[in-house]
Amino acid sequence: MTAAEWIALAVLAGALVWLVWAFNRLVQSRNRIANAFAQIDVQLKRRHDLIPNLVETARRYLSHESSTLESVIRARGEAVSAVDALRPRPADAPKAQALGAAEQVLSASLGRLLAIAEAYPELKADETMRSLSEELTSTENRVGFARQAYNDEVLAYNDRAGQFPELLVARLFGFHPAAMLQSTQSAAERAAPRVAF
After folding, report:
1. CATH number of residue 92's parent domain
2. CB-based contacts of 121: which residues, under 8 Å, 6+ apart?
3. Which residues have C-beta within 8 Å of that of residue 14, sequence separation ≥ 6?
4. Cα–Cα–Cα angle for 105, 108, 113, nearest 5°?
5. What is the mean pLDDT of the chain?
6. Whose CB among 61, 153, 154, 158 lies 3.0–4.6 Å from 36's, allowing a Cys bridge?
7. Residue 184 confidence (pLDDT)
């Protein structure tokens, strides 16, 4: 072999090594998203498991508010379905967006239920209701932390898959951008409280 052939072979081998390295980094990033989603999944399952108990406790006091209770149960079902759809491919952007939308609807329904519960002193004083509300609040905080970790992994993955030269490998092997999960709080809940004197 001539020197030119050796150089060409070395360049080809280097390109192949880089291709494998870039592919493996993208796979690793995608797997980190899956791991981060698994943490969210655990917390969402806990949240979703608390809701029927909360609704059942409230039902004893709010029998005339059945539409509110039914909307919470319906929204919970949609959120559970959205989690189930995202679980096999946690980097799937449309399914992540659907989960975010379903969780926002669930949060809004829960917010209405808890606002109604505030108007009923005997329900508000119920030990089970207080305990479930506290657990739900704690779980919401855990979901927020897990969502942040997930979004950090999605950002790292999207950065890798979107920057040259790894962009070439991402496009060649079908590594599509992942979507971040948005907060389940409404814009009004995220707004800073206004104080007027």
Report:
1. 1.20.1440.20
2. none
3. none
4. 125
5. 89
6. 153
7. 54
Do residues 143 and 47 lie in contact, with contact meaning Cβ atoms separated by under 8 Å? yes
The tokens for 86 are 């995202």
Domain-located, residue 100: yes
Confidence of residue 183 (pLDDT cuts 50, 70, 90): low
Position 196 scores a pLDDT of 41
pLDDT of 194:
46
Residue with the two structure tokens 């929204």: 75
Q: Whole domain around residue 152: which residue ranges?
A: 10-179
Confirm whether 57 is domain-assigned. yes
Domain count for the chain, please give it: 1
User: In the predicted model, is pLDDT for residue 50 greater than 60?
Assistant: yes
Put simply, whether the predicted model's pTM sits higher than 0.70 gets the answer yes
